[in-house]
Design a protein that fits this description.
single chain, globular, 239 residues, eight-stranded mixed β-sheet, 7 helices
């Protein structure tokens, strides 16, 4: 089975143990939660013989760089490059760590258009996508990767799933979400310039047009990755 995994973005920065008695240095105690990635890589390495996995990082932490660039007057093209470079750095971190967890990983980042050819000729089981400024979000990059290789499944990690708050009067549990409704909501939020709703329209349209079997999953439920159909804490995107 071939699965594309979109790693989480928002919600992965957490406060760790204090590292300094100086109060103003407290910001250093906030860090990207390594525990999730460590556990996920351990799980991934256990499926070397049965699955081909393509991984796309979320943009966790990019807000610091992007906010600085915006306040200094960076152009929209510059912002795309800055965001892409940040995700590329994260991809290289995860790729370099994969080998430590005994995953059989291809040793370079791959552009979307090269994935299918390289995967067909490789004995590796894990592949990392090279980000591209042509894709407005890491969600759309992951969807494009799934389309390019005709993936059996796309798993998108999102915080709080299957509970959703944005656009609802109260947190609402959704286990099956029709894609046309998701696209409609994404269009409404994008028109208001208020950010993407769950996933952006571009990624959802790729999923719909390519007929990709897709699920949303909270990071804390990572262990359901390979048994997603049996998980009652996931949200299926219904085509």
């Amino acid at each position: 089975m071939t699965i594309v995994i979109k790693l989480p973005g928002a919600g992965m920065i957490k406060k760790g143990p204090a590292t300094s008695s100086i109060e103003w240095l407290g910001y250093r105690d906030y860090r990207i939660d390594a525990g999730f990635y460590r556990d996920l890589l351990t799980l991934i390495s256990s499926r070397n013989d049965t699955h081909k996995l393509v991984i796309v990082s979320g943009g966790v932490g990019s807000h610091l760089q992007l906010n600085l660039a915006k306040e200094l007057g960076a152009s929209s093209d510059d912002l795309k490059i800055i965001g892409t470079d940040h995700v590329r750095t994260l991809q290289r971190i995860f790729l370099s760590c994969c080998e430590k967890y005994d995953a059989v990983v291809h040793d370079t980042l791959l552009p979307v258009h090269e994935l299918k050819t390289v995967m067909a000729a490789s004995d590796a089981s894990v592949f990392f996508v090279d980000p591209d400024t042509r894709f407005a979000s890491t969600d759309s990059l992951a969807a494009a990767a799934a389309q390019a290789i005709s993936a059996d499944r796309l798993i998108v990690f999102k915080a709080k799933v299957p509970l959703f708050s944005a656009g609802f009067d109260a947190p609402t549990r959704i286990e099956k979400w029709p894609i046309d409704n998701l696209i409609e909501r994404a269009e409404s939020f994008e028109a208001l310039n208020s950010g993407h709703y769950i996933m952006d329209r571009a990624s959802l349209e790729i999923i719909r047009d390519a007929g990709i079997s897709s699920y949303l999953l909270a990071p804390e439920n990572y262990s359901a990755l390979f048994d997603i159909e049996q998980c009652d804490q996931a949200t299926e995107i219904v085509l």
